[in-house]
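hey
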């Protein structure tokens, strides 16, 4: 009885905090599910059915999936409860979330930065999304006209449409670095003296616009590829070409974790591929996502850890240090469940970049899930500022983190005998 009551209360809380979501086109057959799963193996089985897992708890997960995926979970006896997204209609963003940038507002914000900081910032057009929107890189450097001379780091956001917080954080990092540099902040000045910083705030502009159409949220995750069966969208974070399609993604175009027809089938992932290939000075890559408050490192496609013990130690040490600042949980990605074709397996596996996926605030659906509201942004900015500077500091040589030739901010210091 008490358990039933608790469940009812949990469900009600869950419903109340979810913002308004309209169900038209593309999201109409999606369901939110609470599914029994007690370890990474059971969670991987769920991911392999094509369900997008959004939150992991000790004995269950929360995820989104189609009707057929829901029926499959039900037949396996693992479904705790579910409800269709289209039945959730509760007031939310965007009228109350004006601090978030839609595509055009992002373009304006970037233009403004370009005009304000002509000596530090170059805005590069990397290419166009499937619907023709521009994907930008903000290159911040003391000598912006000569790229590639200094060690580089890249921060990316907005792979997944509904993860709007992941777009705002990299934009904020860019703004703050530029502002502090101009104000003669000594730490930012010393970092910039020896680094090139790249920020790609929005990898999936089409999906992001689609998610906020009609001033409501639609829980859209993928891009806007028109698939052969008439559905649309490829999961960009299952489309990268390292161990693509080896688990935790789906061949069903209607799935939220549809891997695409082939590796790098999408213009958005091709753009990131070319960007990394063309910037051989990069040493660290960070991909921001939401939500769950995690710092993840490779591998995602296998339960094995990175075989190179030094590389493994660098990832683990850095993740644990950054977690001291933002309070997130540091762990190997596949400790959650298997997911293949993601950005960081590729950037480490193919290019040996030290690579992290941050799952930003909030921790769970009760904190707002994908739509925590703009009131959450200052907290996200504050928590992740030190981790960002720390990574920039180590971008000359991330392996220094194991060698004791550094201070807490990752800047080189002489060895003390
Ligand atoms: Zn994501």
């Amino acid at each position: 009885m008490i358990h039933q009551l608790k469940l009812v209360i949990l469900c009600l809380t869950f419903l109340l905090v979810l913002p308004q979501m309209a169900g038209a086109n593309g999201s109409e057959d999606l369901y939110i599910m609470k599914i029994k799963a007690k370890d990474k193996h059971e969670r991987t089985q769920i991911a392999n059915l094509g369900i997008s897992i959004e939150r992991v708890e000790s004995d269950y997960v929360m995820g989104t999936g189609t009707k057929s995926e829901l029926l499959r979970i039900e037949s396996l006896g693992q479904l705790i409860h579910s409800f269709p997204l289209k039945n959730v209609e509760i007031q939310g963003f965007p009228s109350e979330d004006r601090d978030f940038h839609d595509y055009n507002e992002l373009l304006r914000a970037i233009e403004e930065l370009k005009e304000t900081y002509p000596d530090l910032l170059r805005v590069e057009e990397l290419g166009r999304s499937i619907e023709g929107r521009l994907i930008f890189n903000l290159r911040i450097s003391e000598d912006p006209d000569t790229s590639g001379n200094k060690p580089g780091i890249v921060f990316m956001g907005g792979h997944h449409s509904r993860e709007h917080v992941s777009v705002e954080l990299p934009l904020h990092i860019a703004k703050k670095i530029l502002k502090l540099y101009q104000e003669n902040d000594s730490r930012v000045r010393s970092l910039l003296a020896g680094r090139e910083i790249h920020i790609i705030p929005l990898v999936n502009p089409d999906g992001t616009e689609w998610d906020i159409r009609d001033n409501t949220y639609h829980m859209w995750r993928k891009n806007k590829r028109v698939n052969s069966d008439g559905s649309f969208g490829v999961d960009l974070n299952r489309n990268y070409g390292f161990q693509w399609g080896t688990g935790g993604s789906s061949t069903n175009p209607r799935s939220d974790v549809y891997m695409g027809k082939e590796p790098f089938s999408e213009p958005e992932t091709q753009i990131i591929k070319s960007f990394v290939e063309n910037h051989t000075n990069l040493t660290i890559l960070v991909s921001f996502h939401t939500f769950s408050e995690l710092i993840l490192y490779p591998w995602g496609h296998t339960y094995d850890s990175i075989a190179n013990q030094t590389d493994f130690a660098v990832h683990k040490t850095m993740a644990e240090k950054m977690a001291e600042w933002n309070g997130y949980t540091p762990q190997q990605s596949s400790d959650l469940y298997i997911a293949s074709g993601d950005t960081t397996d590729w950037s480490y596996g193919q290019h040996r970049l030290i690579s992290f996926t941050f799952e930003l605030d909030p921790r769970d659906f009760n904190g707002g899930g994908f739509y925590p509201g703009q009131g959450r942004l200052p907290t996200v900015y504050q928590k992740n500022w030190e981790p960002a500077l720390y990574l920039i500091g180590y971008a000359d040589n991330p392996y220094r983190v194991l060698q004791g030739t550094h201070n807490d901010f990752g800047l080189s210091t002489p060895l003390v005998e």
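Residues 159-160, 163, 237, 289 surround zinc ion (CB under 6 Å). The radius of gyration is 21 Å.
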